[in-house]
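#onboarding

Welcome to the new folks! Below is a worked example of what a typical request in this channel looks like: someone posts a single protein sequence, and someone else replies with the predicted structure as tokens. Don't worry about understanding the tokens yet, we'll cover that in week two.

Example request:
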Amino acid sequence: MRAIRAGFLQMLVLMRRDMMLFAACLTPVLAGLGIRLGIPFLEAVLTGWFSKPAVLSPYYALIDIFFAMLSPTMFCFVPAMVSLEEADERTAAYLFVTPLGRRGYLAARFGIPAAAAFLVAVVLMPVFRLSPLSPGRILGLAAGGALQGVIIALLIVTLSSNKLEGMAITKLSSLLIFGAAVPFFIRDNAQYLMSPLPSFWIGKAVFENMPFYMLPAFALSAVWICFLLRRYLRNI
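Example response:
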């Protein structure tokens, strides 16, 4: 445990050298303020402009889902960038044979950030939410978002060989969270074409108010993580 803590603190030191990575950790709060203040204002403007009772409010729950995934994505993006730098400098492989070990390295680079992302999402969602959220739904969305963040981080380190490629992969892999929007807009069976995406089941759980659908979201997340983790370790 001491080695894992030291490995995590080492990552924080590396993160402080890159202000972009440090600023990424503040993105969830800034985005939350923009959502909480901007979306209701925009809704008022649009309803008056189009003379309709609701324009954006039917999708407030979807916006909450996206916000639940934003915090973990940004928190896991930072260690992914650090891991890419370590892989490029060949230091990651050396850390595997230190007391930190392979499992300790993975815990320090992905496990602790994912846990921190979960806690941050649990704290921020009640503050910046747009739709009614029960404690159980907040926990479920925070857990699903944390797993989604780990998936995106592993996609970054698996498919990228440097930070520049990592930025491009981050933008592409972040599109995976839009699977949550499918149940809101596609009502027939065609929506199940997106069923391999964990985010699809998270969106379906919220849209149909069926917490049971979080189970396939968690199961698929585990499959994605196991597959990508094996690829990542093979590349290292």
